[in-house]
Amino acid sequence: MTPRGLVVAAPASGAGKTTVTLGLIAALRARGVAVQAAKSGPDYIDPAFLAAASGRPCATLDAFAADAAQLGARAAEALAGGLGGDAPARLLVIEGAMGLFDGADDGSAMGRGSTADVAAALGLPVLLVMDAARMGQGAAAIVAGLARFRADVRVAGVILNRVGSARHAAMLRRAVGAVAPMLGTLTRCDDLSLPSRHLGLVQAGERADLADFIARAAEWVAGGVDLAAVEALASPIGAAAPPRRLPPPGQRVAVARDFAFAFAYPHMLADWRAAGAEIVPFSPLADQAPDPAADAVFLPGGYPELHAGLLAAAGRFRAGMEAAQRRGAAIHGECGGYMVLGEGLVDAGGARHAMLGFLRLETSFAERRLHLGYRRLSPRGGSWSGPLVAHEFHYATTLRAEGAPLYDATDAAGADLGPMGLVSGRVSGSFAHVIEPG
User: Fold this and answer.
1) Which CATH superfamily is domain 252-437 in?
2) Which CATH architecture has domain 4-236?
3) What pTM was estimated for this model as a whole?
4) Which end of the chain is more exposed for a tag (fewer CB within 10 A), N or C?
């Protein structure tokens, strides 16, 4: 059977599309549909929830970092089970980011990398989730405007969220149904809220009630949405050539994986495996050392600032990392991993914690400042080769950074950001999360 796909989007952030998407995926899965989840744009936290709902790794489909061919290749590989060795899936459900037409400011009128760009590149219909809590018939005008805004983006159905009553729902159905297919209405459900912290949602793995939460979301969606109609509106997804891949930093790569180092894209690890690399996970928070036979160590981003004291006291982790450095393993850290490679990390309370000391770097969360945006990177050294597209999203302040820069960087609009990151011998790191080859 040819796999099919659809995009779940909203007019703006805050409409409840993550919870609706989770419930939709879990409800479809309960009907026997093998669902592959994906997330539009650079994100690590939502995908962990989507992976839990679908039972398979969540794909990242970023229309700023990848062209249409690369997006198609990433989608096809995920559907085929290539992200985690799963059986092929029948339906691709992509959760959008921010509003449907919100992209990165690249200097153009409409920006680049929006959820609409993903839908257009893959030729997939959009299922629009609208927050109708304070709306009447005017909701139809918003739907009509979104549906006509771009000829290459098709709004194929609408789900109205946070509907107040049966009368409210009936009124909205008549109005919105006159301009677009109505697929369901959902009443407000406050116990399905997703708590946040400074970088987004609390991680999926930190919720002891995650399975129950997803089951309740599925029941909520199934009670108000025509699931058969949702599945029917999905469009076929054709075959694609293999994606352009990110090269592995070594043959046997030790990858840190726990609450402090949770932000590794599944497609990056799949790229490394496709090139013949072996991935060996380990947990610094459990005071585990990287595999002693690893010729490369990757410390992904995450929340080391919440566990800085525990990391500073992790003797086996430190000894194993020092041994990897002595034997010449390629060691790379992204964002949180970069901070751990430094000499010290100051937490939000002002306490300094000694980190690995491989790079002459001091960072702090005592004075927070948001750094956000896409980055185009040209490596000067380290284990990366060729141009890269990445994303930066953190609140850490750099107190001191001394040594050779790792990258030359520009922002989404091409403005020069100067040097970025540090490299010292075989150790490298930066605040940038690499998404795709440039």
Assistant:
1) Class I glutamine amidotransferase (GATase) domain (3.40.50.880)
2) 3-Layer(aba) Sandwich (3.40)
3) 0.96
4) N
The domain segmentation of the chain, as residue ranges, is 4-236, 252-437
CA distance 271 to 35: 22
Q: What tens digit of pLDDT does each residue of 270-315 get?
A: 999 999 999 999 999 999 999 999 999 999 999 999 999 999 999 9
Residues with Cβ < 8 Å from 139, sequence gap 6 or more? 130, 132, 160, 172, 175, 176
Active site residues: 335
Type of residue numbered 315: G
Q: How many CB atoms sit inside 10 A of residue 87's CB?
A: 9
Q: Which two tokens stand for residue 170?
A: 């009936």
Q: Give the C-alpha separation, 377 to 392, whole Å.
A: 11
- By C-alpha distance, which of 303, 290, 200 is closest to 259? 303
